[in-house]
Amino acid sequence: MPDESVRVLVVDDEALIRAGFRVLLNASPGLTVVGEAADGATAVRQCRALRPDVVLMDIRMPGMDGLEATRYVAGDESLDARVLIVTTFGEDEHVFAALRAGASGFVLKDTPPEDLVAAIRVVAEGEALLTPRVTTRLVAEFVRRSPTHRSAAEPVGLDGLTEREREVLGQVAAGMSNAEIADQFVVSLNTVKTHVSRLLFKLAARDRAQLVVLAYESGLVVPGS
Description:
InterPro entries: CheY-like_superfamily, NreC/VraR/RcsB-like_REC, Sig_transdc_resp-reg_receiver, Tscrpt_reg_LuxR_C, WalR-like. The protein is of the alpha/beta class.
């Protein structure tokens, strides 16, 4: 949305953090903070009332936490808001749960201001913020621990994919960008974008983040491979 201001809802139970985000984002060209919330329930109500493009969501909050709020926001087809989780390294398991709930990515609370602004713009464009490769390592680790993890011999929900689409999905799960996948398979960037679009459609995935989770949970990609 290059010609429109990205509307951001800031969700955190600490007023000083919300105030800091508001000042930073409102001072950034193309970004506008349209509202704040101190808990998940308020965040869901604000999303429905204010229609933000991106929700900057904390995880640990009183009452409804950020995980449950993310499920409501991502699961509401009447909303077009993308959820960007703000977290710390000590909350890895919660980050994975947020990705499963429909979050489009995460940033750390000590992320430099310019990187936070860039992350919001990436998510607003409909992409998933999976650039830090720690994200896919994190997903792999928690799928490995999950009792519901299936072996690679039992892929689920992938029957309708072509062999090349499976290969592209595997590269997405490895944290590869579209440009890197294009180099890997010696094809054009547009070809890769088409494959990713088809994957999103066939697997009914909201974005790239969900593709990563599906790739591991289906067994197509085995943690540690």
